[in-house]
Write a structure and sequence with these properties.
The protein has 963 residues and is α/β, with parallel strands linked by helices. Helices cover 42% and strands 13% of the residues. The chain contains 41 helices and 27 strands. The strands form 7 sheets. Strands 12-14-13-16-17-15 form a 6-stranded antiparallel sheet, with helices on both faces. InterPro entries: 4Fe4S_Fe-S-bd, 4Fe4S_Fe_S_CS, Cys_rich_dom, FAD-bd_oxidored_4_C, FAD-bd_PCMH, FAD-bd_PCMH-like_sf, FAD-bd_PCMH_sub1, FAD-bd_PCMH_sub2.
Length: 963
Amino acid sequence: MTAITTSEPRISIEELVEQLEQRIMPQRLVRDPLLRLAYGTDASFYRLVPGLVVRPENEAELLAVIEVCRDGSWPMTFRAAGTSLSGQAVTDGVLVQLSRGWRDAEVLDDGARIRLDPGVVGARANQLLAPFGRKIGPDPASINSCMVGGIAANNASGMCCGTAQNSYHTLAAMRVILLDGTILDTADPQSVMAFRESHAALLDGLERLASNARTDVELARRIRHKYRLKNTTGYALNSLVDFRDGIDILMHLMIGSEGTLGCFTSITYHSVPEPPCKTAALIFFPDLGSACRATMALRSAPVAAVEMIDRAALRSVERAPGMPESLRGLPDGATALLVDVRGVDAEILQESISAIGQALEGITTLEPITFTDCAATYEMYWKVRKGLFPAVGAVRDIGTTVVIEDVAFPIERLEEGVAALSEAFQRHGYTDAILFGHALEGNLHFVFPQGFERPGEVERYQALMDDVARLVAVEFGGSLKAEHGTGRNMAPYVELEWGSDAYELMWQIKALFDPRHLFNPDVMLSRNPTLHLENLKPLPAAHELVDRCIECGFCEVVCPSRDLTLTPRQRIVLARERARLDALESPSESERQWLAAFAGSDAEYAIEQTCAADGMCGTRCPVDINTGELILAMRQQQHQRWAPMARRIGHHFSGATRVARTGLRLLSAGRSVVGDKAMTGASRWLHTTSSNQIPQWTPAIPAAAPIRILHRKTGNTGQRDQVVYFPSCATRVFGADKRDTDSRAVMDVVLRLLDKAGYDVVIPEMSGHLCCGMAFSSKGMGNEAIHKARELNRELLIASRNGQLPVLFDTSPCSLQIVEHLDERLEVRDPVAFAHDYLLDRLTLAPLDERVAVHVTCSAHRKGLHDRFIELVRACARDVVEPEGISCCGFAGDKGLRVPELNASALSGLASQVSGCAFGVSNSRTCEIGLSQHAGITYHSVLDLLDRVSQPGPFRARSVSSS
C-alpha cells in the first residue's frame, strides 16, 4: 500500500495561533472550548472537538490558514453547513469554516451556468436561476440548509437528480487551493497554463493512473459498473476512465472527495431545466415487492422522480397535517411510491400521467392512482418525504441517536436486495428501522434509532453494519454510499466494496495531492478498522423542549445570530453538554474546567444574550423545535430575582410607557443640540461602560409617539362595520423616524386607513395600560407576561362585546404572542392578514412606481403570512424587493438596543440589496427601527404604504364581524 506520512510532529496550539494571528484577524480564531464544541458538531453521530476553529472570510485568509497549518503539521477539515451525516465534517484538528464571507453567486450565460461560493445555500442558487427556468442539478433533501461546498464535496444528488445531474456531471469549472498553496482556476486559461508548468508531475501522475485504469480491463469494467449506480464510496474513480487530460481528472476527483484532496473556493455548474408544471401522486401498493416491480415498470415512463416509502416510514408520518386519512388504515407491509411528473405545460403533464397509468397496468394498487392538481398538496407530499429521517428522530428514546445510511442496488435486483436488507434488520433486532429512498436509481435509505451507551449496543451495531456491507457491496455488487459521502462511518468498508486494487489506486491519488495526510485525515480512507465505532456522540437528556433534536442543522440558515455567536443547533449541543457534565458524580479536572466555562459571562453572552428567541428555527425544524423556548425557560430561571420589579412595572404599565416617551423626547432634544455623531459616541460609551445595561442610542431611534391620537375616534354611523383596534405598546411609545419626511405615527395611520375603508373603530378602555405580555416573556418574566396577557384578554372581551367584533393588532409579534392566552370567543387579526383579506377589497389603489423593500417579520413567517404579505405589497407598489437571506432582523424587542451587534449581524447584507429603494415596509415597529438603522433607507408599517396609495372604495367587501 502506498505510504502516507502521518507522524510529523505538530507545533503547539499556542504556536499555531500565534502564527495565524500574524496572517489573519484574531477574531477569526476560536479558542473558547464551548464554542469549539458547538462549532465542531455536525449532523452525524460522531463527536470530535476541534483544537482550533478558524473562520476565514476570503481566499487570502484561507490560503494563510492552509500554509500555516501545513507548515505546523496540523490536520485541516473544511466545513460549510455541517449537515453531512457520515462524520466527514468533524475533527480534533483545525476546523476551517467556510460560510460567512463565502456567499457570492453569479448567474452566467442567461442562466445556462452559475458560479457559486462554497457558503451559498443550495436553495439560494435555485432562487437565482428560477427567473431563467433553470436550477442546479443536485437536489438533496437538505437543499434549503446545506451549502454548495458540502453538495460538491460529497457529490450529493437527491430526489430528481439521479446520476446524470449530480455535481460530477454538471461541473463546468472550479477554483481550488491545494496543500502546497497553489490556486488553480480551471475557468482561467492563464491559471491552467501556469498550473501545467508548475504541477506537471501531479498532472502526469493523474494521467498515468488514468491510463493504467483504462488498460486494466477488469478494473475499468468495475469502475463503469459502480458509476452506473449512484455511488459516493471512495474517490471518483470514474474520472480516470471518463477523462484523459490531467486538469479534467483533477477537477472531477475533487467532486465527492470530502475535502481530503484540496479546498475549492468556487464552483461553476451547468444548470438544468426546471419545468414550470409539476404534479405528484402517492401510490400505495400491498407490499414492498409490488412497489419494486412498479419501480421497474416506471423506468421507461416520463417521471421526474420515484420515491419509495415503506410501511414503517409511512407510520412515522401518517398523522402529519394534510396526510390522507387512509394512511392509518394501511395493512402491514404496504409500501408507497411518491411519483413526481414535470413538464412545460398541462398537456405534457397529462400525457405523462397517461403513460404512467399504462406502465402500471397489471400491478395491484391499494387505491386508485390520483395525481394532485393542488400545489399545497404537492408541496406537502415532498415535505413529508424530506422529513422522514427526522420523523424517526422525533420519536426515538432519549439518549439515542439516529443512524441513516444510503445504499444502492443494481435496479434489476432491487426487489431481492430490499428483501435481504429488511431481513438483516430483523435478524439484528432493528425492528423499528424504516426504509425509503430514490427507488428509480435503486438508492434506498435506511434509518433507525441507535443507542451506544448500554452494554452490547456498539457490538450489535457493528454486526449489522458488517452484514449490510457484505450484503450490499459483495452479494449484490451495489454501493454502500450512494449519495451521503463516505465519511467516517463507511471508511472501514471502502476496500471491501472496491477491492484491493481499486483501494490501492485511491491511496495513490491521496498521496499525489496530500502525501502528509493533512487534509481531513481518516475520512474516506483509513487504516483503522473500527473508526466507525469510535468518538460516538453522547446525546443526554437536556430539556424536554429540545430532547427531540437530531442536530441536523436545518434551523441554522434562518437564525439571526448564526454569524455572531451560536445557532439553535449549537445552543442545543451546549445544553446537552451542560446536562452531561452536571450528571457526573466525579468530574475530571478538564470537565470541571468546562463547567467553569459554562458559568462564565462569555457562555451567557453566546447562549442566552444573543439569542433573539424569534422562533424562526421552529419554522425549519423537521421536528418542530423552537429553541427560543429553551432560552426563554433559561431566562426565567436566571432572572427570578427581577420578578418583583416586573410586577411593579406591569401594575404601572401606563406610567412605564410615559417614562419611555419622555425619554425619547429628551433624546430628541439632545440630538438636536449635539448632533447624531456626538449622541452616538456618548451612547456607545455609556452602553459599554455599563456592561450593556444601558441601551445604545442610534440615529434610527424615532420620536415619541403622540398618544393623544387614540382619543380621536372614527365616525359612528351605525351603518358601518366595526372593528376593535388594539395599539401595541411599541406603537404607543415609538413614533415616526425623525429622519423621515412622513411624521405620522402608526396609530394615526391605522385610524385613518380604517376610516377610509369604512370601519368604525372601538379602542379598549385603559389601552395605555395594556400589553400582550411579550415585553415580559422575552426577558424571562413569564408570570408577569401571563398576567398582562390575561388582563388584555379581559379588556378585549369587553371592547369586542364578548367576541362579536374582530380585534385588529397593529404589529404581528403582538398578535402572535397573545394567541396562546385568547378566550376562544375572541378573533384577533394580524395587520397583514387583515389588510390583505379585508382592506384591499374596500379601497381603490394607485400603486407607486417607486421601488419598495419588504421585510417579512419572523412572527409573520411563523403564522404563514409570507405570501399574503408579498401580495399586499405588490398591490401597492410596482417594484418590490425582498432581500435574500434576511429572515429575522435580530432587533428582538429591545435587543437591537441592548445587544446591537445582533441586529447588525443579522442585517449585514441588507443595505446592498435594498440600494435604490425609496423606503421599506414591515409589520413591527421595533423591527422597523433596526431595519432603518442598517438599510440606508427608512422602514414604515406596511399599513402606512397601503394608506399612501389608497382612496375609499365601494365598501362591498365581506364583513369581518366574528361569527
